Amino acid sequence: MNYSSQLLEKAVTEINRLPGIGSKTALRLALHLLRQDEGKVDALANSIVKMRREVRYCNTCYNICDGECCEICSNPLRDKSIVCVVENIQDVMAIENTMQYRGLYHVLGGVISPMDGIGPSDLQIESLVERVRQGGVAEVILALSPTMEGDTTNYYIFRKLEETGVKVTVIARGVAQNDELQYTDEVTLGRALAGRIPFNNS
User: Fold this and answer.
1) Where are the domains of the chain?
2) What's the per-residue H, E or C state across the chain?
3) What pLDDT digit, counting tens, does each position of 37-66 carry?
């Protein structure tokens, strides 16, 4: 595509790097920004830069936060004896949207996937085990997507936690096989959490 401005072309190229954004959509977004007041565009750009520089990961659960501890972990009304293990931050948001879970979380940052070069040491698994060993956790809910990689990660975590004696459960299979948790509707996800079963019975 021929651009009459190299600055526009560079903006389109950068927007095109975002996931799910094709070249036509990138051009449409760039032209939209070009038509906006400078103040609005500056506010957008500044919010993105500020987010990238200042957003942190919770010292306890590895959810995103603005300080050292996220709002969920620091909330005294949450049940600290239950920890729900999820793949990513989007899964935390999906479960929170069900408004049926009042425990804490542990974000792994992915799942075990040898094909993608991701092993247990690349994830927050050891920190989960250490968290359980410190005491106070009565149940660990494995809420990973029901894919081959998710099931492999579930089994690995279950074996690592066996020695601790903590109760390990897995969400019910109301979530369809190979579906990603973050795209499951709130009702189905809520029922899957409520109907969780012991891992060794799954």
Assistant:
1) 6-54, 78-201
2) CCCCCHHHHHHHHHHHCCCCCCHHHHHHHHHHHHHCCHHHHHHHHHHHHHHHHHCEECCCCCCEECCCCCCCCCCCCCEEEEEEEECCHHHHHHHHHHCCCCEEEEECCCCCEHHHCECHHHCCHHHHHHHHHCCCCCEEEECCCCCHHHHHHHHHHHHHHHHHCCEEEECCCCCCCCCCHHHCCHHHHHHHHHCCEEHHHC
3) 999 999 999 999 999 999 999 999 999 999
Q: What is the pLDDT of residue 181?
A: 56
Output the CA–CA distances (angstroms, integers) from residue 179 to 21, 44, 174, in the order listed.
22, 33, 10
CATH number assigned to the domain covering 78-201: 3.40.1360.10
* The CATH number of the domain covering residues in 6-54: 1.10.8.420
pTM summary value: 0.80
* Cα–Cα nearest to 201, from 178, 169, 164, 163: 169
